[in-house]
Design brief:
Strand order of the largest sheet: 1-2-3-4-5-6
Radius of gyration: 33 Å
Low-confidence stretches: 291-305, 309-323
Order of helices and strands: HHHHHEEEEEEHEEHHHHH
Strand content: 5-15%
Number of helices: 11
Mean pLDDT: 78
Oligomer: single chain
Length: about 500
């Protein structure tokens, strides 16, 4: 390795490590903000929270690597441009392509390492994190209570609340109690309440206010009774007294917990099951339709809708019986009452067939959506790994154009480009989940858009066809500084 290449790598690796750790920290804060209200103040040990953060940070690594590479590339090349080192390199006959070579080589290694990490380590950490979250929810049942959703904090107890506050105060409480055989249907409604857990995590205490209780009683003279209450305290016994970390079997089949080889095997199995189900549905229509023959009502041959379905011709004494009935001739032989019955039967049969079609259509769509989620996870490991290289390809020429090191302007440009990439990826991923866009297009579209931009920037900067006047850049930086100082002055005046 040449001395110049070592110097460029040292200038890049330092900012890369700092920005990578910073990106992981920022993304981890976003994860904590999502669960902070449900984790803090629930009596959990700090070791449990630290373990959860540890696994969550590993799951954020594939997303932090591209942003770190982009920001570090802009910072390193911007510093070279700011200190005129880039100009000195070009004056000495070193082209931009040779300057880029060590950075591209480093990011190729990072891309390969990112794929290996996503394919082998991240499924394990996702499994551990999901298992730990589930264990926390089992230990602290109030964590799983969400607004407007039925949950089961204890066996045969279903609770729905309209609103839950940070202090575990509840508004609009609805409880279905199916415990025991004496009271199979027990419904409690309350306008407000509060939920608490005992220190040993063995009991959950529900304190309800201003509600009614409806109960069905077996073996009683009065089969149903209702009562009103101003205050009611219910004690629910919890099965677990600690966090159960041995529940990984529940989540091993999830698409986020599988590597690409396992995802491929699962997708093939799902496709086979989907094909068999479609043939079964099609066969049911052929088997139970009014005209079961292989020809239509006019005697024309019908194309096979179910090529894999078994033949369904009705046989009598070894000979095939084929329906060749003309409806007009058959109706002309009926009176009005018979025709009305035929029409009514046809309408009812059509409605029944339409209902069956709607049901199986939802079933097929659900299966396809489940397959798509596996395909998204399969492509994601490749697309995020390739993004590490693409962002470096964009960051190097941008840093050469900006010619400013440090976190200021580099961070603004990096965040803007990353947000553009993230918005495009998220938007098209949503269309893939809705079965609108093919999976390979939705997952690769952001990379397809970034690749020509990166190539154009590299070629333009290498040929000195794209540059920004330093005076213009200084004016932009001074404007941003004045804007920041003005905002601080306004905040100080308000205080």
């Amino acid at each position: 390795m040449k001395r110049l290449h070592r110097y460029i790598l040292r200038a890049f690796i330092g900012p890369w490590v700092i920005t990578f750790l910073l990106c992981v920290f920022i993304l981890l804060m976003q994860f904590l903000w999502r669960y902070i209200d449900d984790l803090v103040g629930k009596g959990l040990d700090f070791s449990i929270i630290f373990e959860l953060m540890f696994y969550a940070s590993f799951s954020l690594v594939p997303l932090a690597l591209p942003l770190a590479g982009l920001l570090a590339s802009i910072m390193a090349m911007g510093k070279f441009g700011e200190t005129n080192e880039l100009f000195a390199m070009k004056s000495g006959g070193v082209s931009l392509y040779r300057i880029m070579a060590p950075l591209l080589a480093f990011n190729i290694v990072i891309s390969v390492a990112a794929f290996i990490f996503s394919n082998n380590i991240m499924p394990y950490t996702n499994l551990k994190m999901r298992s730990l979250l589930f264990g926390i929810q089992q230990q602290r049942p109030e964590v799983i209570i969400q607004n407007g959703i039925f949950v089961e904090p204890a066996d045969d107890i279903f609770i729905k609340v309209d609103q839950k506050t940070r202090n575990n105060d509840l508004n609009g409480v609805l409880i279905y109690d199916h415990r025991g055989t004496s009271t199979p249907n027990n419904v409690t409604m309350a306008s407000s309440g509060n939920i608490m857990i005992t220190e040993d995590n063995s009991m959950m205490i529900l304190e309800l206010h201003d509600g009614t209780r409806h109960e069905d009683i077996k073996g009683s003279k009065y089969q149903h009774q209702s009562s009103k209450f101003d205050r009611q305290v219910t004690y629910l016994e919890l099965d677990a007294t600690g966090i159960d970390k041995n529940n990984e079997e529940f989540f091993k089949g999830g698409y986020e917990m599988l590597n690409n080889q396992q995802l491929k095997y699962t997708m093939d199995s799902l496709y086979v099951a989907l094909s068999d189900r479609e043939q079964e549905i099609c066969g049911n229509f052929k088997r139970f339709q009014i005209y079961k023959g292989i020809t239509d009502v006019y005697g024309n041959n019908m194309p096979s809708m179910c090529p894999k379905a078994p033949p369904l011709n009705i046989t009598a004494e070894g000979e095939s019986v084929v329906s060749k009935i003309k409806i007009d001739t058959l109706l002309s032989m009926m009176d009005n009452v018979q025709k009305e019955r035929v029409y009514e039967f046809a309408v009812n049969y059509s409605r029944s067939a339409n209902t069956y079609l709607n049901i199986v259509s939802d079933e097929i769509d659900g299966t396809r959506r489940w397959i798509v989620r596996h395909e998204i996870e399969w492509y994601r490991k490749y697309s995020l790994s390739l993004a590490c290289l693409l962002f470096c390809l964009i960051g190097i020429p941008l840093g050469s154009i900006i010619r400013k090191g440090g976190f200021g302007l580099s961070t603004v440009v990096s965040v803007f480009i990353f947000l553009l990439y993230y918005i495009i990826s998220t938007t098209f991923e949503s269309t893939v989940k809705e079965l609108v866009t093919p999976t390979y297009i939705g997952m690769w579209i952001s990379s397809i858009i970034l690749l020509p931009i990166g190539i154009y920037l590299v070629v333009s900067v290498a040929n000195d066809n794209l540059r920004i006047n330093p005076r213009v850049m200084n004016k932009i930086i001074n404007f941003l500084k004045l804007k920041r100082q003005k905002n601080r002055g306004d905040e100080a005046d308000e205080q």
